[in-house]
Structures are given as structure tokens and as C-alpha cells.
Amino acid sequence: MDLNELLALATDAAKKANAAIMQNYDKFDIFVKADRSPLTNADLAANDAIMRALEPSGIAICSEERVLDSKRRMSEERFWLVDPLDGTKEFIARNGEFCVCIALIEHGRPILAVIGIPISGDIYSSNGGRVYKNGALLARPNSAPQTFMHGHHGKSVKYAQFAQRFKMQLVRKGSAIKFCILAEGGASAYARFSDCSLWDIAAGDFLLHQNGGAVVDLKTMKAPLYNGKSLINNHYLAVGASAMKNLSEMLEFAKNF
């Protein structure tokens, strides 16, 4: 399969996962995983839908609900990296801020990505060069509100310090939807100064990069890699296209966190 065919496959997978999640939105059971994070019927249904949809590609799949072992992640030339329901806590809270994340990793970096937003049905997708929203070309933003986003559950004072330093309004937003907001020009920056998993950000990283923004690993000061031994990302900073002019200054400030 070429990249266009793989993108069509991933888009179909995200749409089916969106539908599976919404079928469980009004009534679901909550389980607790070994790491004490929540799991619902919707996570499992979305995972099953994605696994079935991506299977014809013949490419290995690493999902939050079916992890590919580290040896294979490090040795496979390509593999799918999937979060079938990013923002399970937001799903449980019924605030709409949850999404489906699918990325195709090649030699450690994403080369294709799809993010689906179940509550609206929106699909963001790219296999390089351009980003599409529901099949229509997404314009590269030349301006954005002075807004700095972080998650609902982050408690560190670092977020407020960063926002104050760069004269931005601090806003909480759940899941990888934040990357879509940045790609559309709905905010200027987003950071994570605590641990999260590879599948949480790979798709958003690619979409944002393709629309003129960037995600930078605050430890390596380079783009994140997704084929390492650990499933945990280093802390990172994401900026939209219109804020790229301030990226160096932001990184210099954030790296000390």
C-alpha cells in the first residue's frame, strides 16, 4: 500500500472508532488498569474497530490497549501507534474533550496521522505536506490568540509561570485535541511538563508539524522519537505556526523546568 492508501485506511479506522465510542457514550462501565488509569467499554470497542480496520495494511500495531513489545518497536521499520480513546477521563466526565489518535511511525518519526473527534465527528488527517479537516484543506494560520494550553489534570505551577512569562492566557483543554487547535490557529502554544505515553502525542505531533508548527522534546531539544525502549515521552513544548518566531525563546525558558 502507498501512503494515500494507508491514509484512507487510517481515516476509515478513526471514523469507525469515533462511532464505536459514541455508541458507548450514554452507558459504559469503568475498569481500573494496572497503572491505575481508567478504562471503559468505549476504549475497548474503539481499539477493536481500529485493529480490524488497520489489519489489511500488514503493518504491526502498537496500541495503548494492545502494546507492541519494545524489541519490535525498536526493530520494525514501520508500525502503527494508536490511542483508541485519548482522554478517557474526559470521556467519563462527558466534557467532549477526547479523541482517537492514529499515527504511522517510520524510523522513529510519524509519516502519517489521523485524529478523530467523536463528539463532533471531525477528522484531521495528513500523509505529509498538507493537513485536511473532514477532507477539506486546512489553511496554515498566520495568527492565533495568545493562549497557552495545558491539560485538565496538570497541577504544576510551571504552566502559570510559562503563560505569565509570554503574556498568554492559560487555558485547560483535554486530550490531543490541543494539537488540532494549534494546527487550526486556535491557540499559540501547549506544553506537557509531566509524563505521558508515546501514543498520546505522535499523531498530533505530525499534524501540527505539517501545518507549520512544531513539537520539541525538552530533554533532547529535537523532535520526539517514538521507537525507543520506553513508552513514556520526555516533557515537550508544542507551538502553532504563528508562534514559531518565538520558539527559541520559549524553549530557552521551558528547558529549565
Automatic annotation (TrEMBL):
It is an enzyme of class 3 (hydrolase). It is a peripheral membrane protein. Keywords: Cell inner membrane, Cell membrane, Hydrolase, Magnesium, Membrane, Metal-binding. It catalyses: adenosine 3',5'-bisphosphate + H2O = AMP + phosphate. GO terms for molecular function: 3'(2'),5'-bisphosphate nucleotidase activity; magnesium ion binding. Mg(2+) 2 binds at D83, D86, D200. Pfam families: Inositol_P. It is found in: Cell membrane. SUPFAM superfamilies: Carbohydrate phosphatase (SSF56655). One of its GO terms (biological process) is sulfate assimilation. GO terms for cellular component: plasma membrane. Its cofactor is Mg(2+). Substrate binds at E64, L85, D86, G87, T88, D200. Mg(2+) 1 binds at E64, D83, L85, D86, D200. Converts adenosine-3',5'-bisphosphate (PAP) to AMP. Belongs to the inositol monophosphatase superfamily. CysQ family. This is 3'(2'),5'-bisphosphate nucleotidase CysQ. It comes from Campylobacter gracilis RM3268.
